[in-house]
Every structure is written in structure tokens, then in C-alpha cells.
Design a protein that fits this description.
mainly alpha; 65% helix; three-stranded antiparallel sheet; 6 helices; 150 residues
């Protein structure tokens, strides 16, 4: 069987490394830009939902969000009627850089798909969506404390 996940992992690590280098001047490191993008795209989102979107555990999300709040990229607001939930909102600092972050993502996407036909791009998207769905099943179970059976 082909080692497809190695290829996917290498692609993800390369793009993450590039972004971390390019966004260092913005004071965003170690994937923090992903949080800024998601919070800009979903103002008022709760921390648990951000963790779910990024496929990270709550502790990792909590640390990243706290650092971003300390740096002035996001602000937390208590949800009306539910004081446990803190809603996350982008600050003006995040909104100012969001168009740049979005352009970088669009560029990386276009670069990755350079030379592919529309049909091939649609096929890749469809297949990767299915791969993600399969992995999400295990991710949900492991998150709940279950072990996978190898």
C-alpha cells in the first residue's frame, strides 16, 4: 500500500514551516496564524470549536489562544447567559493582517495544485475529504479516551 499519509504529512509540515517563517515578522509562530484565520472567519466562536476545526486537543488550543490574547490578536468575551463559554473575537490587529494571511493560503493552494486540471483538482478534493472523514472517526474516539485497535 502506498504511504499516502507520509506525503500528506510532508506537505502539511512544509507549508506550516513556510508560513511560520513568513509570519514571524507578524509575531505569529508555531501555527498561531491558523487560529487567527479561523477566529477572523468565525467571530464569536468558542475555543472548543476552534480546537475541533484545527484538529488539536483542548489544551493545545487553550495555550495558543492565551498567547494570541496576550499578544493582542484576539479578545475573549463572556457569552450572554452562559458564563462558562468565552467567545473569541479578532482584534483590529488580526483583522489588519487577515487579508495577508488569506492571500498566503490562496497562493499556497494555487501553488500546490499548479498543473492540475479542474477535474483532477475536484478529484483530489473529493478524495481528501473522504480521507479526512475516515480519520475524523478515529480522532473523535481517541479524543474520548478510547484506544484504536491496530
Amino acid at each position: 500500500m502506498k504511504e499516502i499519509l507520509r506525503e500528506i504529512g510532508a506537505i502539511a509540515r512544509a507549508l506550516d514551516s513556510i508560513s511560520n517563517i513568513e509570519f514571524k515578522e507578524l509575531d505569529l509562530t508555531k501555527g498561531q496564524y491558523l487560529y487567527v484565520i479561523r477566529i477572523c472567519e468565525h467571530p464569536g466562536i468558542i475555543q472548543e470549536k476552534v480546537a475541533e476545526l484545527l484538529k488539536v486537543d483542548r489544551t493545545t488550543a487553550s495555550r495558543a489562544i492565551q498567547k494570541l490574547e496576550n499578544k493582542g490578536f484576539i479578545e475573549k468575551r463572556i457569552e450572554q447567559g452562559n458564563k462558562k463559554n468565552k467567545l473569541l473575537f479578532p482584534t483590529a490587529k488580526s483583522m489588519d493582517i487577515y487579508p495577508f494571511l488569506k492571500r498566503e493560503g490562496e497562493y499556497s493552494n494555487a501553488r500546490a495544485l499548479e498543473g492540475f486540471s479542474t477535474e483532477e483538482i475536484n478529484s483530489i478534493h473529493s478524495l481528501l475529504t473522504r480521507v479526512l472523514h475516515n480519520i475524523e472517526i478515529d480522532w473523535e474516539e481517541v479524543k474520548k479516551g478510547h484506544k484504536r485497535q491496530y
